[in-house]
């Protein structure tokens, strides 16, 4: 497998089809910087006996089996009769089995309006470097991720926090995980009292920054420890009319921490005075980390359906692997890439619009111990925008009738009850009201109870559905609904292109 795809210690580095048809592979040799040596031959993880091979697990080479270091590498296989394959083409590799070093060290890197970006300086790896940082919530859904090598960034809105489980991986998949929380606050210059002439600062400083023209003073009220964020120019900082810091003059037009101050436990006036300087604001943040444990990145599960151009295009609109932590597996459900199964099956109704579907992709997210009985996204292309709109209207009518009937009757004539609940605080990011249907319902009763969130959204000739189901009689809380509405807003953004 090409070295640029080596990203998990537990992945095999051999492509399928390396084993011969006549005699089993029993060993491997490598050339490391031109020197031939034996390489461990491992049983394939999770191997199960078959009729054709009931006894002997096939052998392979895992990334974890290679010696550490930086070297030229090629490989050959040896079968049970002693025959040796040709050498693979030599490649330069770096093998690193040490885990990243992670500490609670964050540095402010940028400000844009109320959003602050913090570089995680404490996420380092001396071998292959840090290549991926994920922050996931309690269910393993992605809150944020960064793939910038050796400079992961966490973005936090002023006055809020990013809290979750961090997964820090080096470029070969060795990882560290632990709880992390970063909270920030930013006081923009617009909150201050100003004297002198001020103008908007260049856009490179982010929205909200201002520039003093000539001599100026600005007063801001704050408490506790703060960083004075400035750009070019110089100034002095005073608290309660006492100068506490001098900001050195600079000609470089980029964000910097001009001074770090402590206003104490009670709010005080901080006065910043100078000539021809840029002020971005007063910033403060707190962070916590730990406890930490080792966590190796899992090998990616291949999705062969993505070799189809149409399926690959639909995949961009629904769930993506990057929406989840690595413990989740995302794959098309059985029949999910065909039109064999219905799309709109709310309340067991029949939808005439199903015949107008051209393409369909439905994927299911699963993990060991998942709290969800069913977690899925679906993307459908209809024959025309009119056909998609007709589907939406059918769905509205079915839901209205289901509310009146309080469910539907099954094939035996028994009522399967539906209890619908209100969905509050719908975020602005969803498609318009006339192009969506939002469902929050309890299906059936007693031991058969299920909780359903179904968010159906249409744009032009395309539909996306988000389905979340729990096998319980305990309804989704408003907080849970709000979280999934934000996921639906992400789907809407993808749907709009």
What form results from the Cα inertia axes?
flat
Number of strands: 31
Secondary-structure-based class equals mainly beta
Rg on CA atoms, Å: 29 Å
User: How much helix is in the residues?
Assistant: under 10%
Poorly predicted runs: none
Largest sheet: 12 strands, antiparallel
Provide mean pLDDT, rounded.
93
Strand coverage percent: 35-45%
User: How far is it from the N-terminal to the C-terminal residue, by CA?
Assistant: 34 Å
Give an overview in words:
The protein has 497 residues and is mainly β. The strands form 6 sheets. Strands 11, 12, 14, 15, 16, 17, 18, 19, 20, 21, 22 and 23 form a 12-stranded antiparallel β-sheet that branches. It has an 8-stranded antiparallel β-sheet with strand order 24-25-26-31-30-29-28-27, with helices on both faces. A hairpin with a 7-residue loop joins strand 25 and strand 26. The longest helix is centred in the last third of the chain and has 21 residues. The radius of gyration is 29 Å and the shape is flat. The chain starts with 24 loop residues before the first strand and ends with a helix. The model has no long low-confidence stretch (mean pLDDT 93).
